[in-house]
Design goal:
259 residues, alpha/beta, TIM Barrel, globular
């Protein structure tokens, strides 16, 4: 199994990172893609520690839309910041998470757009996949991916909770759809129905830990060891054996991120 999106460099895991990694390995998690906030020195330091504990871990580096306002005075700085950190992070395999968030609007929307566009262009230049965050901004997110990606940028819509129309738009772009613990929630019937319609060769699994722990761990800190609950749920939806679903989503991960 793969946890294709988690935040193990977050301070939440600093005190027991070795135990978290041990539980992930014991649960059968082959590797994880860890998201790093561009320019965050504390996360970069924890990423180095993480590599010493789990050599199979890989990284994505990007400026989240919540962070976009930090570049409002000089949008070109985001490209330099991400490029530099990618160069300094040998295990980096993607740019992300990046995108748009109109739910919180922690950054002005025009700045979000500019920062997002800059990073998609960088991904195209470097031939790296993108990890996309979109919340209440689906039309603009897809439009920017079409305009800046030009059909040449590959990636994933992470922690997917959107509509069937968004899933279709992402699939049309050649993107993967990644499901997190939300898919196990009792009230997530519509999401499960959408996931059932995604071809199995375009599915990824993630935890987005420390957030969104799946049933039966809701209310607890999430961690990569729990990604098996997502695999099990997708297997049920697609009427597959869980081991087969785990193998398929692992192959999908390798296809996209080339770890």
């Amino acid at each position: 199994m793969i946890d294709s999106h988690c935040h193990l460099a977050d301070d939440t895991f600093a005190k027991d990172l070795d135990e978290v990694v041990a539980r992930a390995k014991a649960a059968g998690v082959e590797r994880a893609l860890v998201i790093l906030e561009a320019g965050n020195d504390a996360e970069a330091a924890q990423a180095t520690r993480l590599e010493s504990l789990w050599s199979e871990v890989r990284f994505a580096v990007g400026a989240h839309p919540h962070q976009a306002h930090q570049f409002s005075a000089d949008v070109s700085a985001v490209e330099r910041t991400v490029r530099r950190q990618l160069s300094d992070t040998p295990g980096a395999r993607a740019i992300g998470e990046i995108g748009l968030d109109y739910h919180y609007d922690f950054s002005p929307r025009d700045v979000q757009h500019a920062v997002f566009r800059s990073q998609v262009r960088l991904a195209r230049e470097l031939d790296l996949p993108v990890v996309i965050h979109t919340r209440e901004a689906d039309e603009d997110t897809i439009a920017i991916l079409r305009e800046e990606g030009g059909g040449h940028v590959r990636g994933v819509l992470h922690c997917f909770t959107g509509t069937a129309a968004l899933a279709e738009a992402g699939l049309d772009l050649g993107f993967f759809i990644s499901l997190a613990g939300i898919i196990t929630f009792p009230k997530a019937g519509e999401l499960r129905e959408t996931a059932r319609g995604v071809p199995v060769d375009r599915l990824l699994t993630e935890t987005d830990s420390p957030f969104l722990a799946p049933t039966p761990y809701r209310g607890k800190r999430n961690e990569p060891a729990y990604v098996g609950r997502v695999v099990d749920t997708l297997a049920e939806l697609h009427q597959m054996d869980a081991a087969a679903m785990g193998a398929q989503t692992t192959a999908n991960f390798h296809s996209l991120f080339r770890p």
